Amino acid sequence: MATASKPNLDHPTFAILKEAFPAITLRGTEYRGQSTLIVEPQDLHKVMTFLKNDPRCDYNFLSDVVGIDYLGYPAPTIGRFAVVYNLCSYERDDRFFVKVFLDPSIPTDGIEEDPALYVDSVCDLWPGAEWTEREVFDMYGIRFRNHPDLRRILTWKEFPAHPLRKDYPLRGRGERETYRVIDRTDA
Amino acid sequence: MPYTLKPSNAFDIDIETTEYLKDHVDTGDRWVLNFGPQHPATHTTLRLILELDGERVARCTPHIGYLHSGFEKLGEHLDYNQYVTIVSRMNYLSPIANDICWHHAVEKVFGVGLTPRCIVVRTIMAEIARIQDHLLCVGAAALDLGAITGFLYSFNPREKIYDICDFISGQRFHPDWTRVGGAMADLPDEEVFRRMVKDFIHNDLPHALKDLEGLVLRNKIFYDRTVGIGVMTREEAIGWSLSGPLARASGVRRDLRKDEPYLCYADNWDGQGAEAVQFKVPVAEAGDVYARFQVRIEEIRQAVGIIEQLIDRIPGGPMNVFTDSKTTKPPKSEVYGSIEGLIQHFELIMTNRGWEAPIAEGYGANETANGELGYYVVADGSPRAWRVKTRPPSFINYAVVSKMLEGHMLPDVVAVLGSINIVAAELDR
């Protein structure tokens, strides 16, 4: 069934963006009626601001922020990690996806801060991005610049990995067996 | 020997990383109250660190993750049919709605169409799940605010819903009923199913709804506790990504059943020009806790209307699609009656075989009781998804709780939490 048909790139937002940003690299893709724009990380905030504020785009609703790790994915991808923004326009009743690819610069089995895994936060445009971006940070270690409160959300601060990365095993690295016991003497 | 509590500056918000709270703890009359994780009004396990000025909430910091169990990691290791058992356990108030949404997303990526019979039965079950969720939400909110009777009255009809789930799937709480391209089984007996659903919507539900409305919505105490509490304006609701009854109570006209129609909510769902089901989307303007319950009660009525339109029109024919693309389990008559059917069944059941999925990604969303529930599915050609990201309405709606609570009194915390209808299993996944 893996017959990849040619993506249909006639979503009107592609044309508007192309006209508005002639200088920056924009890629587009489409699958079953869902159009995805791929931007470079440094251009993300600029493009997102335009998508929110331009009256022809008017994407006023950020539905979700998705992190993806493509380590070992069978098809070639631009980078290892991706962040996908799921945008919606209520007025025009239109859904549009924006995707950013990132490549790590240090080994990904720890929680050290990686200067390459940084994108600009969109919390100033859609305040609802706050928790979804925190979840991406928690699960993939992708940090968001200018985020108001970037802390881990589902796991705890000392957790020694970002668990949804593909190099993190399903059963963990023994965190369940070697935890710190707190009793009443040191509570 | 009695043990002594350490002074409050050793309170474990230190461990819990809230750096910015430290500046405020020592000032004036402010004090910090830890609400949860184990508290009757948190329903499951969620924790709020409330910084109070007297009895007024100055700042609220939610801490979640107590029920985090790696559902999305599991989704990368279970195949497209197995994962439905995990999905079912996310929003356990209306599990069948999660099943339907999960396979809606998978079928969208696979490009599988459904049979008319499956579409109708799925729509009926989706609406029953909506009733199931709203009943519990309104009843439990009354319970949190001190009225236990409403809770009991709302639970009675829910028993009947469990019976219907039990009848079609064999399991009461977690039906795990859908499969790629259909359902785990055809209705055991269409006539009995129809009778059970009609019995529920004509006999049980109207009484319960009347009682619930009288006891809760027209209750002066409940009214006083909920009107003007936790107000969100329309712009705030859209900006904070709220969906479902929360957004519609703030005047947002958005319902995926109308705006991105699927199943019987779309025109021409049977391929022969059938009309979409008729229903109205209730919208309130006030944006407070009370308006959210009004919207939920009205949605129950509309759901009953949808079920009434469909229950006598369940088309015949097979429940599962039988395609050449080998994506769905064939009907049993094909398995035992034809060699193609047997091979296709075998291919899907054997552990070293399975789907030939596309290498692509897509997003499918349904309007469930709490709002937009969606799955972002990245398929890699193997029988297991590469990545399944849930768009959990509880998680995204809960992000706004600290904003809703600012400046309210401590007892209002419970009212606001009840109106958001957080399901911690879905919140933490």
Explain what this protein looks like in three dimensions.
The complex is a heterodimer of chains A (187) and B (429). Chain A has 187 residues and is of the alpha/beta class. Chain A is 17% helix and 24% strand. In chain A, the strands form two sheets. A five-stranded mixed sheet of chain A has the order 1-2-5-4-3. Chain A starts with 11 loop residues before the first helix and ends in a 42-residue tail after the last strand. Chain A has three helices and seven strands, in the order αββαββββαβ. Chain A is elongated. In chain A, a hairpin with a 2-residue loop joins strand 1 (26-31) and strand 2 (34-39). Chain B is α+β, with helices and mostly antiparallel strands. In chain B, strand 4 and strand 5 (182-183) form a beta hairpin. Chain B has a three-stranded antiparallel sheet. Chain B has one domain (71-111, 114-320, 358-428): Orthogonal Bundle (Cytochrome-c3 Hydrogenase, chain B). Chain B has helices spanning 22-25, 71-75, 84-87, 95-110, 116-144, 148-169, 190-217, 220-226, 234-239, 245-248, 256-259, 289-311, 332-337, 339-349, 393-398, 401-405, 410-420, 424-428, and strands at 30-35, 47-53, 56-63, 178-179, 182-183, 359-368, 371-380, 385-391. In chain B, helix 5 (116-144) packs antiparallel against helix 12 (289-311), helix 5 runs antiparallel to helix 17 (410-420) and helix 12 runs parallel beside helix 17 (410-420). The longest helix of chain B has 29 residues, at 116-144. The chains are: A alpha/beta (187), B alpha+beta (429).
Secondary-structure blueprint:
The complex is a heterodimer of chains A (187) and B (429).
Chain A: H1 12-20, E1 26-31, E2 34-39, H2 44-53, E3 61-69, E4 81-89, E5 94-102, E6 118-120, H3 129-140, E7 143-145
Parallel strand pairs in A: 2-5, 6-7
Antiparallel strand pairs in A: 1-2, 3-4, 4-5
Chain B: H1 22-25, E1 30-35, E2 47-53, E3 56-63, H2 71-75, H3 84-87, H4 95-110, H5 116-144, H6 148-169, E4 178-179, E5 182-183, H7 190-217, H8 220-226, H9 234-239, H10 245-248, H11 256-259, H12 289-311, H13 332-337, H14 339-349, E6 359-368, E7 371-380, E8 385-391, H15 393-398, H16 401-405, H17 410-420, H18 424-428
Antiparallel strand pairs in B: 1-2, 2-3, 4-5, 6-7, 7-8
